[in-house]
Amino acid sequence: MKGKEAAALKRIRSDHRGFSLVELLVAIVILGIVVAPLLHTFVTSASTAARARRLGDATLAAQNLSERVEAASLKGLISNPASALAVPPADAALYLRGADGSYSRSTDTPVYRDSCYWVGVKHIVSGASSFNAMITLEAGSGAPNDALITQYSSMDAVFSQAYPGEADDPDTMARREFEADATAISGGSYTASSPSRTIVMSLSAVSTQVENRETVRNLACKLTYNYTFPYSYERAVTDPVTGLVTGSVTVNTVFSKAVEYDLLPSGFEMTGTSAPSVYLLYNPWYENTVDSITIQNTSDIPFPLFLVKQVTDCPSELIRKEPHYRATVQLVQSSACPPTGGATLYSNAKQYLSGLSGSIPGVSYKVFSGPYVYDSGVAFPNDGSLVVQEAENRLYQVTVALYDSDDTSFTGSPLYSFTSAKLQ
Questions:
Q1: Phi first, then psi: what are they for 70, rounded to 5°?
Q2: pLDDT tens profile 258-317
């Protein structure tokens, strides 16, 4: 039995000749046809998943940057981008965009509320991906950016004239000194004419070189109230021999008084475009002469001056006095000062404080270019407005463009772009 089984097995092995080459090739081709789509599907799926993960990382990175831009103040963002965006100092900077579309780091001092800014950020890690980003803030046109906004004005130099009759009121001080002087000279009997008052504010800047620093301009501001009190009195004429009074002569004379104030006793250091806000709150001069106010700004200092006329009487008295109020406000600057340069005046001098409508016709404004040439046709600026109002860019379109981490010049095509808005 064992011999027969062995013979049968031998016959089977000898009869099995295996697969031919053609059969193997056909099998391989069939296998390739079946497996190739499966492999392609697998590779495509893996690539799609990788792109999806990278797109998700990019979306998250762009949204995070956009939220940080929205949360930061505009001043903070343009002055210290790294701090505002919470990245290392070397990874964020303000850039300039050339006409050819290229970007370069900015070394200039940024202008607040400019029309466009570019902030470059590098080494942004999101998920398993790393990116570089260029953030563009572009101001749009429209109501938010065209509306006038009241500006904050610091009160750096302030003079508020005391109420009439108070001891430290310069008008009262001058009048009391005049009365005492005229009484002493005339013997107690004199006739006073209409007094006059001139207010002169002088601003000057002195440049000094500070060690290890740039040249600093230190500003001084002086205020002077000048008074003249014309009066006359009768002086007796005596005979030089007998000493008897033979008659009298009329003596016409003038008492003068100047009261000075230093509005910046510690000075004011002007750095960059900084300049002080100066406030002069004065009592109107309702005497029968012109109220003269002169601002000497021959250094062409660009500062806002708030010239505020104060209420000094009851409404019924103001209604009687104000229509006859006359004043001349003069701004004296150098001949080199451009028409829109130098000081900017804000005043209510032409306005009725008694509630009457319209403006006081007797108040004029002159802008001098040099000591002799002036334009008398200049309209009194900002009638009644005692605040600075300017249209400012407040609404910005924010575009975050993400680039590959190897693209440090931001010149390639963005991998992802995200757009939002920022309201300052």
A1: -65, -40
A2: 999 998 887 777 766 567 888 889 999 998 789 999 999 998 888 888 888 888 888 888
- Residue 366 contacts residue 374 (beta carbons within 8 Å): yes
Please spell the DSSP secondary structure of 62-109, one letter per residue: HHHHHHHHHHS-HHHHHH-HHHHHTS-GGGEEEEEE-TTS-EEE--SP
User: How many percent of the chain have pLDDT more than 70?
Assistant: 78
d(CA 152, CA 275): 13
d(CA 229, CA 245): 29
For residues 85 and 365, give the distance between their C-alpha atoms in angstroms, rounded to a whole number: 49
Q: DSSP class of residue 6?
A: H
pLDDT for residue 276: 80
Residue range 196-215, pLDDT digits in tens: 999 999 988 877 666 666 66
* Residue at 206: amino acid letter: V
Quickly count: other Cβ atoms within 10 Å of residue 181's Cβ: 16
- The pLDDT value given to residue 19: 64
Q: How is 217-237 classified by DSSP, letter by letter? A: EEEEEEEEEEEEEEEEEEEEE
CA distances to 221, 310, 336, 346 from 159, rounded to whole Å, are 11, 12, 29, 15
Q: Give me the torsion for CA of 175, 179, 185, 188, rounded to 10°.
A: 160
**54 token code pair:** 């990278």
Q: How far apart are CA 153 and CA 155, in angstroms?
A: 6
Judged on CB neighbours under 10 Å (0-12, 13-18, 19+), 363 is buried
Amino acid symbol at 402: L
Helix (H) or strand (E) holding 170: helix 170-186
DSSP assignment of 41-65 equals HHHHHHHHHHHHHHHHHHHHHHHHH
Q: 373-384 pLDDT, tens per residue?
A: 777 666 676 555
* Tokens standing for residue 347: 């005043």
Domain ranges of the chain: 52-147+393-423, 152-228+256-387
Q: Two tokens at 217?
A: 């301009």
